[in-house]
Amino acid sequence: MRLFSAIVLMLLWCRGVWSLAKTIDTPAPLETPPLCGLKCIQQVTLAPGRCPLTNTTCLCTNVERNEQISLCVRSNCTVRETLQLQRYAKHECGAPSRDRTALVWIIGIIFLGLGLFAFVLRVVSKIFMRSQTWGYDDWMMLLAVAIMIPLNGLSYPISQIALGKDIWNVHPDDITQFLYIFFWEEVLYLAALPITKISILLFYLKVFSNKEIRLGCWILIGFNVVYFIVFEVTCIFQCSPVEGAWKVWDKEFPAKCNNINIQGWAAAVVNIVLDLATLILPLRELYSLSLSLKKKIMVMMMFCVGFLCVNPSHKAMSMSYVMADIAYSVTIVSIVRLHSLATYATTSNPTQDYVEIGYWSTIEIPVGIICASMPAIHSLFSVVFPKVFGTTQRGGKSNYANLSEPTDPSSGPLKLPAIRVQKEFFLKSGRRGDVTYTDHELIQIPFRDPNSCSSSEKKPISPRESV
């Protein structure tokens, strides 16, 4: 919970940086408008009843005049010339230019560090703890980390080139370079999503022995593999030829492209469905635990927002819920990211409007890696910080029963020393396959006679029983 609060505070801080960056006034340098644009301006402004060329306020605020100029420019100018004219107009009208480049790379680098730190702790846990073994889930997570590093690392060069600036303030050649880097970020992002979920599902296979859950895990793994293949192929070949993905923007490169907006929405929605299926899958097994209905509901609610940490060295499951809200944030990040897709591949200012898509993508993958590493991290911390993260075993102690002054019908009350009886028990339950078992161990602690120096040892008085 503390870690989740820290991440929320960090996101709020990043939002503050974003708000400040929006208001930075960085006017573009004065530049001569292209000839085609200058002709359109003269044609519209010299018409009877229009604003005179010397009245800047009228020229900048007259909506009807600006729409007519835009129609003329689109018909007579290239995309590059249109951006040049737009840059000139923004400068002449004193319009502020937004610069959110710092927001892009700061978020990317911070979450890259968090994801790497979580994975390092996971590896340390596997190396130094006997109960933790390196498995297929760890290999998949290693692959996800290998993808996360360039994905988040590219947030710096792409922000320095264009992402976070208004497109009319970016050199046309830099726009091509920006779209080239963004293309590879898409490829890396779509690869990391299913790989992270496959790692979590492989972890489920290590934890749960129920046949239905194991079958569900394999089915979801299959769906994630299909997701990987389908959306990687459609992303790489979104345009024909492939380089059209980063060159077709100025309409000077001949290429045919898919509907990228629909493609992005489809990938995001299917990913959220797979996220929810991964979280819901073990709920039936948790419901079958030997707990009261109230506790079952609490356990399932906690699992829906967290990960079940199981110590595989124990035959019976030992459950500990670690940073519950963090895991749920994986799906939350995916849902929040949907909002940023509204302008995806449809905006005329991608270098500015893709900022949200960029930084939410660099948040989602590291958070997924952190969540998947939580069980191993918790096991490590339970040894290093046992008082804070140690696994608790639930037992029970009854109250003391005082038996005193027994009566004899013939002689009246007898004055005997008080007898103190302490009863202790230990309860352990779990599942082996489809069989539920419960072990009871009762220990009788005999009293010590205050008038005697003798005492006896603890002796178990009840055998183990299975139900």
Automatic annotation (TrEMBL):
InterPro entries listed in its UniProt record: Extracellular_membr_CFEM_dom, Rhodopsin_dom_fungi, SAT4-like
Instruction: List, as start-end ranges, the regions of compositional bias called Basic and acidic residues.
Output: 456-467
Q: Where are the transmembrane segments?
A: 102-124, 136-158, 178-205, 217-240, 295-313, 319-338
Keywords per UniProt: Disulfide bond, Glycoprotein, GPI-anchor, Lipoprotein, Membrane, Secreted, Signal, Transmembrane, Transmembrane helix
**Does the keyword Transmembrane feature in the UniProt annotation?**
yes
Provide the leader sequence positions.
Answer: 1-19
Q: Which residue intervals define the domain CFEM in the entry? A: 29-94
- Report how it sits in the membrane: Lipid-anchor; GPI-anchor; Multi-pass membrane protein
Q: Which Pfam family, giving just one, matches this sequence?
A: Fung_rhodopsin
Region named Disordered = 447-467
Where, per UniProt, does this protein localize?
A: Membrane; Secreted
Q: Which domain of life is it from?
A: Eukaryota
Query: Where primarily located?
Result: membrane
Give the record's family classification.
Belongs to the SAT4 family. Belongs to the RBT5 family.
The protein's name is Putative CFEM domain-containing protein
Question: Taxonomically, what lineage is the organism?
Answer: Eukaryota, Fungi, Dikarya, Ascomycota, Pezizomycotina
